[in-house]
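Supplementary material to the annual report.
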Amino acid sequence: NAGVTQTPKFQVLKTGQSMTLQCAQDMNHNSMYWYRQDPGMGLRLIYYSASEGTTDKGEVPNGYNVSRLNKREFSLRLESAAPSQTSVYFCASSEARLGGWWETQYFGPGTRLLVL
Amino acid sequence: KNEVEQSPQNLTAQEGEFITINCSYSVGISALHWLQQHPGGGIVSLFMLSSGKKKHGRLIATINIQEKHSSLHITASHPRDSAVYICAAVLPLFSGNTPLVFGKGTRLSVIA
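Predicted assembly:
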């Protein structure tokens, strides 16, 4: 089992460019999440998907869109990147159906994004 | 704004010491997670607690929901325990807030 995988590992963008961060899990989990981690801020929830076909906003959704493509995959899109979106992005998944807030979340290795 | 507070921010210990990391929250929560972030950046879930105490190896986590406080203890600390420890509070559903709020982490260094 690969667990939770994320691509790319590292990306440099110019302001205004778009990109999609990919996340996939092979644990047959129902819920998936996107977080960002900034120095001095801790982890913050961007979007989550409690089950296939549903997505909801977290604490910092502005400037992002998500797609739960199928049960395995949950992508995060930046339509017009801004320097404020420079961060490390983590994807996670959990087994629970109604949002895995009370269960173990399994994290991907992270994507380091630099927006110039 | 809801906030999860962790203390201390940084902690240096000698190998073998007993370590305590604290987490408190200002409003009611339904559960709390403890996570470990390795120096390489990877994040691992350690515990999820809604009451009482949980133990895994040398790690012990306790929570008092009414007092809005949780602690993570490490017994017989070892240099491999060096990491950032993060707590995350689960807010009540339908509260209108984001469901999960993280502390800023406690950076632990254990010296041999």
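The two ends of chain B are 40 Å apart (CA to CA).
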